[in-house]
Amino acid sequence: MNNNAESSRNLWLVAFGCLAAVLLFSFFGARLLPRRTYTSVARIDVGGLKSSTAQDQSAVEAEAGSDPYFILPEFERIRADAILTQVISELRRWPDFAEHTKISDETGYQDALRRLRKCIDLRQSHSTSLIEIRGYSSHPQVAADIANKVAEVYMRHRNTNGVKVQLIDRAVAVSR
92 and 29, same structural domain? Predict the structure, then answer.
């Protein structure tokens, strides 16, 4: 009988332990799991980069579509501190931005730039002069806002320097 009582007690301890584990995971586990990440894409055309002569201009346009190294300097310009600092200063005013990117008014300059660079990715559309600016966030609208604002600030900067850059597609918030 003593063996049967001990076996019953062990069974209750195992059941209680399983119940406690389920309750602890349901309470704390959701906080430990990674947050869902949304992606949104804005596309711009940098094929409007100008050359000094008409003959050179056709060569520039042909090069823009076929040479991936033609796009690399534009990637560096988009990732430049001057562009991203302006993006941060314009997006910091939006309430969801600070919550979903952890970039607030208290975030230091270098830390804010580092965090924003983690929220964007740049790609060339296959054999074209199109650049895809991808924004990442735990909120779909914030991902779209990041991609659109980076495209907008870059275009504003390049267009004031006499370079024609066009917005092809605005990023839209897509929920899964």
Answer: no
DSSP 49-113: ---SSHHHHHHHHHHHHH-HHHHHHHHHHHHSHHHHHHHHHHHTTSHHHHHHH---TTS-HHHHH
Local structure of residue 157 (DSSP, 8 states): H
pLDDT by residue (tens digit) across 134-151?
999 999 999 999 999 999
172: Cβ contacts below 8 Å, ≥ 6 apart: 40, 144
Q: What's the DSSP call for residue 173?
A: -
Asked whether the beta carbons of 115 and 103 are under 8 A apart, the reply is yes
Which pTM does this prediction carry? 0.72
Q: What is the pLDDT of residues 58-68, one digit of tens each?
A: 555 555 555 66
Q: Residues 20, 45: one domain?
A: no
Task: Give the residue numbers spanning the domain of 90.
Answer: 38-169
